[in-house]
Design goal:
Chain B: It comes from Thalassobacter stenotrophicus. The complex is a heterodimer of chains A (228) and B (321). Chain A is α/β, with parallel strands linked by helices. Helix content of chain A is 33%, strand content 29%. Chain A folds into two domains: 1-78 and 148-163 and 177-228, Rossmann fold; 90-147, no CATH class. Chain B has 13 helices and two strands; from the N terminus they run αααααβααααβαααα. Classes of the chains: A alpha/beta (228), B mainly alpha (321).
Chain lengths: 228, 321
């Protein structure tokens, strides 16, 4: 049974419709890649799931209908979001960013620092003064501190140096291997997504145009829908 | 730059030293001024929780100050006239009971006002809190049972077990202790997960929601704690003057509380202490020279806003991160 089930999702920005009947599912322990070119509705889908914008259709998480819930209730239900652009709390230190988000569960400050040892030396440093890579690690750590069952990573490797990108991919692989988290990944790196995801969904102009297992994601499909 | 911790310790000692010197020099009026500083600083500490940590620019905090003051005034009035209150309840001259009543009643007022006003933000929040403050002000004016526009006089200061509250230094000790407890609470709150989340909600409420926290609830709780502390200060202020009147609800007082924070430093732990001390010092010393002493205050405020955004504490201890 799916941990997250999204059916016929629609969303609007004013009079403009941004999503047209998008459907996707994420099972526990599964990594799903949400792919598409820029402006095709990936982040809008994430914001809809996290209840940050109003949306039509059905969004079910762990058999619970999320549509009536505000964003913080959706997060409390177990959806952890690593938002596009990191978006740490800039005036708080690294430790304070983690503490502010903490909810009871297996993830706490020590386990997050085990995952990101580089943050250990930065604990009392303001988040605004961290490098982009460190901010991304903090954003993932902060999402884990909410002890989610589903982790959504929106462009988690965007704008990072190759070494840092690889470190982030290694962390995601470790999360897949060591935890039962469902993971919804949005990224443009086809090679890395193919290595880590179980299934993929492709959006084009707000519409789901392809869905299947990673093995079925042939060059012909990526060429047609992603222009790769 | 002096570390803020050392500066705070020096300010605490300074606030203690002035009345002790006045006691030695037999200057009871100076002790009363120091008590007034401690009480107004306490009201500012309350506002600093909402404004400094939560970013809530409330122009209606005089409502809570006044509710606390009237809680004291009403209870003491019924005790001194031996008339029962509503439901046959007796009045009291016991400070602990009066403080508890002030904390609860101003906290409840903050809950009701906050539940409505915190659905807005920015200039709307400022104006609606101002409107609520003015509603309380005009209600007090038109409440003849408790003096209306003339207010209520309390003939004898309320009592605290084991202390002679009419002795200025002993009453100062009460106000100083309340201030220290409020400062301790502020410091603990600010470093707690609640305080950190409240601070984060000030910076980016949408991001706070994505970690499962409701900015509205965080702000409402902060507003209630803030209102309750300001209400306690109102009760002590009324006891200091042995008088309550609708001016305790006035928007000028709400503005003065904000001015305390701007002078001392918004979100700085001792910001309201420095602000209240400077305000009372100027009121007393410049007020002796000219009735237009507020012009001096205005110039100081202008200089601080233009050149010292961290307030006087920021000038000495440096900007915060």
């Amino acid at each position: 049974m799916s941990l997250l089930s999204v059916q016929n999702l629609t969303a609007h920005y004013g009079a403009t419709q941004a999503l047209f009947d998008v459907s996707l599912e994420v099972a526990q322990g599964e990594v799903v890649a949400l792919m598409g070119r820029n402006g095709m509705g990936k982040s809008t889908t994430v914001k809809s799931i996290c209840r940050m914008i109003p949306a039509g259709g059905t969004i079910t998480f762990d058999s619970k209908d999320l549509r009536a819930l505000p964003a913080h209730k959706a997060a409390q239900a177990g959806i952890g979001l690593v938002p596009e652009g990191r978006r740490c709390f800039p005036n708080l230190s690294v430790r304070e960013n983690l503490i502010a988000a903490a909810r009871p569960g297996p993830w706490h400050e020590a386990t997050v620092l085990d995952l990101f040892p580089g943050l250990r030396d930065r604990l009392d440093q303001s988040a605004a003064t961290l490098s982009g890579g460190e901010q991304q690690m903090l954003a993932i750590g902060r999402a884990l501190m909410t002890n989610p069952r589903l982790l959504i990573l929106d462009e988690a490797t965007e704008g990072l140096a190759p070494l840092i990108r690889q470190a982030i991919w290694d962390v995601i692989a470790r999360l897949k291997q060591d935890t039962g988290l469902g993971i919804l990944l949005i990224d443009k790196s086809l090679k890395e997504l193919s290595a880590i995801a179980d299934t993929a969904v492709i959006l084009d102009r707000g519409t789901r145009v392809w869905g299947g297992t990673i093995a079925e994601l042939t060059p012909e499909v990526t060429n047609r829908h992603l222009g790769l | 730059m002096i570390p803020e911790r050392w500066l705070n310790a020096a300010l605490t000692l300074g606030l203690l030293a002035v009345p002790l010197w006045a006691l030695w020099a037999d200057e009871p009026f100076t002790i009363t001024l120091a008590t007034k500083v401690a009480i107004l600083a306490l009201a500012g500490v309350g506002l600093n929780i909402a404004l400094g940590i939560g970013g809530l620019v409330s122009l209606g905090h005089a409502a809570f100050f006044g509710v606390g003051g009237y809680a004291m005034g009403i209870l003491a009035h019924h005790a001194q006239t031996f008339q029962p209150m509503i439901w046959g309840l007796e009045g009291t001259k016991s400070m602990p009971i009066i403080w508890l009543t002030a904390l609860v009643s101003s906290g409840l007022a903050a809950l009701a006002i906050g539940a409505l006003t915190l659905r807005t933000s920015g200039v709307y929040f400022i104006m609606i809190t101002l409107a609520f403050g003015q509603m309380f002000y005009y209600f007090a004016i038109s409440w003849p049972a408790y003096g209306g526009e003339d207010g209520l006089s309390i003939y004898v200061r309320n009592g605290f077990p084991g202390l002679n509250t009419l002795d200025p230094i002993q009453f100062f000790a009460i106000a100083f202790t309340a201030l220290m407890l409020a400062l301790f609470l502020h410091a603990r709150l600010k470093a707690s997960p609640f305080g950190l989340a409240l601070n984060a909600a000030r910076q980016s409420p949408d991001r706070v929601e994505t970690v499962g926290l409701s900015p509205f609830r965080l702000r409402l709780l902060a507003f209630v704690i803030s209102g309750a502390i300001t209400g306690l200060a109102g009760a002590l202020f009324a006891d200091l003057n042995r008088f309550v009147s609708p001016t305790m609800f006035s928007w000028q007082l709400s503005g003065e509380l904000i001015v305390f924070l701007l002078i001392g430093g918004v979100a700085r732990l001792y910001g309201p202490v420095v602000g209240a001390a400077v305000f009372i010092f100027l009121e007393h010393h410049l007020g002796d020279i000219s009735e237009f002493w507020q012009i001096g205050l205005g110039v100081l405020l202008l200089l601080i806003v233009l050149f010292a955004r961290g307030g006087l504490i920021g000038l000495v201890a440096g900007e915060k991160r």
